[in-house]
Amino acid sequence: NNFSDDDLTPVYRQSVNDKSYSVAGASLSALAKKDEKEGMKIAKQFETEKSLDMLLTVTQIYSAHGSDENHPFFVNLSQKMRGWDNVSFATTYTEFLKKCSDDTINAGIKILEKIARTEDNRWVRYFGQKGIKDLAQMYSDREQKIADQISMLKAKQSNSPELKTLEQQLVQTQNQKQKLTTLYNSVMTPN
Fold it and tell me: Residue 68, class by beta-carbon neighbours within 10 Å (0-12 exposed, 13-18 middle, 19+ buried)?
């Protein structure tokens, strides 16, 4: 390879407008890795694209760099997903949700639940189930981390104002984990 990424950035910028969705998508992905802000800005322009491959490229960029404000894109796209397309959608969407607020996650689990319950193919359903399980695990890990912080703080100073905040976060995290665990168990139980 005789070129550095810096040398190729102008090529990536030009190629996102290529007629080939494959070239445009690869260029957009490469550009987003090089310049997150510019990649996000250009990805937004492709949100209404008709090409599913291009839309899935946007999901990958949003899952790596997005936030709650990108959630409506995923909600709209979920209505277009069918069959095996839901495998990559559910996987990427789960990674996106891990970066989001509890409110966005609570809205998002409905989409994963739909995949987990209604897809005809059991392997496609598996990825909806796995998404719910991965989010529950994320909250379990968070719960452990907060509990450890509380223990360390109590050992140092039992009347720290930070302690009350952490205890509130712990309860909220435990509630989210329980909600997701219950949902996961229900989608794993055959009707």
Answer: middle
* C-beta atoms surrounding 17 within 10 Å: 12
In the block, tokens 């229900």 appear at 186
Q: What is the pLDDT of residue 122?
A: 93
Check if the beta carbon of residue 143 is closer than 8 Å to that of residue 155. Answer: no
C-alpha span between 25 and 52 (Å, rounded)? 11
CA dist., res. 7 & res. 50, Å (int): 31
The pLDDT confidence band at residue 7, using thresholds 50, 70 and 90, is low
Closest of 47, 50, 3 to residue 28, by C-alpha: 47
Single pTM value for the model: 0.86
SS3 call for 160: coil
DSSP state at residue 191: -
Structure tokens, 91: 């996987």
Residues 50, 35: Cα–Cα separation, whole Å: 25
Type of residue found at 107: A
Cα 157 to Cα 72, 146, 168, 169: the distances in Å are 44, 16, 18, 19
Tell me 83's DSSP state.
T
Range scoring the smallest mean pLDDT among 22-26, 67-71, 83-87, 125-129: 22-26
d(CA 177, CA 86): 24
